[in-house]
Amino acid sequence: MDADQVARMLELEEKLAKIRQQVSSKLENQKHIALILTAVEENIKDHDTNDTAKNIVNYMVSFMTLLDQAVDPETHAIKDLQLATAATYLMDVVFQYSAKQLLRSKFAELLAKIAPCITDEKAEPLLIRSAIGCLESLLVAQDAQAWNNTHNLAITPMRGLQGLLELCLDPRPKIRKKALEAIHKILENPPVAPTAEHVAAPAICAFASNQLTDVLNELAGLSNRQLKSDTVKEDINGRIIKSLRLVSTIVTTGQWPAAQIEQLCDMLLEITKSSDQFLVSTSFECFEKLFNSMAETTASAGLAEDKYIKVIDTIFQLKPANTDTHLVGSWIAVVVKGMTTYAVGSPVKAVAKIPEVFELMSTYLQSETMEISFSASQCLIAVISQAVRDEVLLTPEQSGGNISKKDAKVVSGVISTLADAFSEFLTVRYTNCTKEILNILAAAFKKFRTRAGPALFKPLQIVDNWRVAEQKETMELVSEIELVIGSAIAGMGPDAVIELLPLNLTGENPDQPGRAWMLPLLRDYTRNARISTFINDLLPAAKQFESKFESFPKESVQLRIYQTIVDQIWSTLPHFAELPLDLRESFTDEFASELCSLLYSNTELRTTICHALKMLVESNIAYTEGALADDVILQATLPVDECKKNLEYLTTKSVNILAVLFNIFTQTASNMRGYILDTIESYLKITTPEDVEKTFNNVCGLLKGAMDKESAEAASNNNNKPQLTATLLDIIVTMVGYLPASCYGALFMIFDQTVSSSDTLIQKRAYRIISKLSEISLGEEAIANYLGEIETILLRNSNSVHTSARSGRLAAIKTVVNLLPPDHMSFIVHVSAEIILATKDVNEKTRDLAFEVLILMAQRMSNGGSINMGEGPTQLATLGEFFKIVSAGLIGESQHMVSSTITAFACLVFEFRESLSSDIVLEVYDTVELYLTSNSREIAKSAIGFAKVCVLGLPEEIMRPKVPALIPKLLRWSHEHTGHFKAKVKHIIERLIRRFGYEYVEANFPQDDLKLLANIRKTRNRNKKKDTTEEESLPQAKGPKFMSAFDEAVYASDGESDGENDDDEAQAGKRSKQYIIEKAGENPLDLLDADTLAHISSTRPKKFSKKDQRKKLLQDDSFAFDDEGKLIVKGKKYGGGDEEDPLKAMTSGINAYLEAVKTGPVRGQRNKLKFKKGHNGEDNDGFSDDERSGPKRDAGRNRIDKRGGGRGGFRGGRGGRGGRGGRGGKFQSRRKL
């Protein structure tokens, strides 16, 4: 049995299991079916086999026997309706999973048994629906020979299909729906045949077509008097809708014969002439599904093109009134679907049809009803975007002969016609929908791209005049206007737009207005442009403005305007560098040297220029690797071979660019140069191995000189800390991934010399060499070759590790452990103590790495190997041996070591609980359990965490005998509030109750502490009741997320309520709904003061958590975080990018008027004048921290909040007594283990 059959059998068993569960159902029919199934299964129990197919046959025989009992054998009338319903329902379930060969061979017999369930007058809807399901399974299983009745049988599938089709028109909705679903399923699963068309499809379509034709003929033959009768009209319309539903079901399967599509369209078009809006809307839905099926299948291949055009033209002629909100939406959907489907088979002719669509929609764009005008605009956007294939926009040369000159001329003519239409749309006649028209124009520019010019230049100039004029009517349309101009920049290119709409920044042309507002649009919309546009049009203007800087006072507004313009010009450079079309022609040595000179001289431009240099490389690499492969126009404009040549060209310049970047990197502060490393890495990708090796050797020489110099300065007691060495090591770490294998020897020598440095920065970077090298396959091989030396170096420097370098060292150890050969397991023994201690490190990243390394070491030991310590016999590496190694930490001299070892055991027991032998688990448990009685809080806290892991993770047969001894030891800490001891103990006892039952825990609970147990039980019952109430009234809130299952086991629910007075607190919460807001001063709130009312609120004041504060800092422009995660207070500099754009305040006189209104006087109470107060924040002086300098503590960080929501010495606690503190988030990571 293959996987699919197994899955189907499992699905059947799942369905039967659900039916069995309904034995206790309150619904009589469900209960009866479940009882029948139970009785049948009890009866066939003796015949059960491992063969699933035989079991299904047993089910079928039993259910058919029951059905025979429920039907009179002579009259074929149903005598036991309830039994027949249950048997047919169960047969429907089993038939879906029966072998098709079985259903084919027994078709006549099965159909004869099912037929009375459909034809009997007593049959209820449930019985008929189940019988339809059986009939569906039977018909789906038939092959082509059975459908064609090659053996001239009396009972054929066509006979059953005819009855099913009749049910599709049944007046009962549920039966009709089930029958339609059966027809859909049959047509979607045609038997194996030479054609994809179902053998029964012509008969089904003929039935549906005849039914629809008969109803329409009957409707045409009715007299006017009859048509006025509501009863007759309702009956006829209902029959039409039923027929349309059947037609729609057939059409969605794609099985409607191509030869009958024209006839179907004629009937649907006839229905659209009805005055009944629901009929018209339903016929439009059929049209839409018809077009969908024609687009998705090959059924439209037989439809003549002129007939398709005739259908579309007929639909165009059926346009409803521009005030009919009910029909316009459906009609427009049909128009869009028809055009997009037509474009699949005849793309050029579909484009030629678009002007007619524009002419049709112009009527609806003028509609005063917003819904209609919006629908019309969306129609035109959809037609432009989907009915215009990218292939037809290519020139004959670009298409490789697929587009003829005649077709290209047709497309150009259509674009010119649309340009005239857009010019008309931008007149006064369409002012009611100007925004929608601008969106259509933007879509046209995005679609037509370079083919948009020069035809669409006129509409673009009209829109530009609106933007330049800045009149009151057009100011509301600024965002849409800029969208149009931006789309033109993206489509036609910035060079074409600048030529048509000159920027005129320096005022060289007095007849043209200045368009400085276009600079942000150039920045946001420029892609795949020409770098020459920046060099020739923008860069000279930037130089001209920069030359005027010295002629203005430092604080003048004019200077700030010029600086802003220069910054906006330079901000466009990275976008001009994104996959440029003229890289080899425009990125010359002169331009490259000019950029490099600016990197040295202008520190504010370093970020922009580095981003541009990086974009030159990354965009070309991504393009050659398949990015934008579906952009047909771009692929034709810029072939992939051209990008490969671009990369080869950049490779010739990479060495010089890298040299400049290295120099700039050494001159930039450590917390502000991450982007330079990114740029360096981009150019290392395209540099040849020979050049990389030469560059690496040069950097190594500089590093040696720097280290020698700094060693001499250290010997002369110079307090200057080494800066250049750490900087050069950053460069080397970046180069690691791109070095050839010949450089690895020198790389390991650098690691050996720098890892023992007394400087933190150097040591951190030294360890990164190993972890960075392990990311590449060649690097792993090199580490494996030098593994012995690396192990020696790591062990030799274990006592000189700086705190901040510990995470890097752990990452290096993890790499080494992962590559250890089986005979090097002694390295694990040597470093195990260090790893164990690191599990309790104050740094979260270090702790996480320590746990990862601990688990990895256990996995490597469990894989086998040998441990040779040099003294004594060689030991075999096993998981049990590793647990012995870890257990040595329990006899450590310090409490911290013992606590760390217990923490390590908790992690290991949880991770390997399924593979550990019970003897080892019991030995570890018994040993650690003794530490629950330790007087050291640190040790006891870890032991409690270990106990919690065991309670949750170990098998019940191991933990149940340990519970009697565990409970008294835990209760020893139940009265200790410090460090959440009481809450942790209470939570473990709750878990014990859940797992072993309340009675068992109570039997082993000390008498003196039964009050705590009673409190836990009361709390659990109250919480259950509360949860039930909340589920009925409120949606379930998401619980905390944890990084691993171990985290969830240890930290989940640690923040639960831990007091014994929960009832009192709950009652207090119910009694009072008012809150007192305490003053920020030192004096308590005086309730006798007249102003006290202002400090009493009916809602709880919002408390901002640290997460909210950090989010606020991230959103504040005055703050930033560097690559190391340190907080930087940014100073506001003139011309500092987009932070302050003086041009925004000088767009027009309207802004000045609005500003005057905002800040001017207003009339208050008693008609008195009041002036609005401004709040001017003071600028903060910027500063930056070096990587060595420690974080500065806030002066108010240790201040205690009077509300009791402060830190309180622990995270997530209740706070002080003054009020309930903010509930902290659930603990993440392993920081509290």
UniProtKB/TrEMBL annotation:
Domain RRP12 N-terminal HEAT stretches: 24-191
Keywords: Nucleus
Region (Disordered): 1158-1233
Bias (Basic and acidic residues): 1185-1204
Residue ranges, compositional bias (Basic residues): 1165-1174
Biased composition (Gly residues): 1206-1225
Chain ranges of the RRP12 HEAT domain: 366-668
Top-level taxon of the source organism: Eukaryota
Cell location: Nucleus
Cellular component per GO, a single term: nucleus
Family to which this protein belongs: Belongs to the RRP12 family.
Protein name: mRNA-binding protein
